[in-house]
Amino acid sequence: MGADRTRSTGIRRLYSKGINRLRHRAERGAVTAEYAIMIVGACAIGGVLVALLRSPAMQNALKSIINYGLKLAGVEGVHL
Predict the structure, then answer these.
(1) Helix (H) or strand (E) run with residue 45 in it
(2) 3 state DSSP class of 1
(3) Of 7, 11, 13, 59, which one's alpha carbon is 20 to 30 angstroms from that of 38?
């Protein structure tokens, strides 16, 4: 009886190791796909920011913020 119990326990261990390997192998592809989606999303956000910053209104807003900061720092006479 002891040999049967040991054999079945060993088979269960091998089976669970094989299942775990298959799960990890499948999850590797999922992680890669998630990274790819994140990269595409980051590129899309970057493209929107570039488009916004090229507009004259945003450029003027940024210049006024920078000039205000320079005035607070005590640097006068610099106009961007």
Answers:
(1) helix 2-53
(2) coil
(3) 59
* 79 SS3 class: coil
27 by Cβ neighbours in 10 Å (0-12 / 13-18 / 19+) ranks as: exposed
Contact indicator for 63, 80 with CB cutoff of 8 Å: yes
Task: Return the structure tokens found at 39.
Answer: 């990269």
Which residue bears the tokens 């261990």?
13
pLDDT tens, position by position, 38-60: 999 999 999 999 999 999 999 99
Joined together, the tokens standing for residue 7 give: 């054999």
The radius of gyration computed from the CA coordinates of the chain, to the nearest angstrom, equals 30
Structure token pair of residue 72: 């607070």
pTM score, whole prediction: 0.47
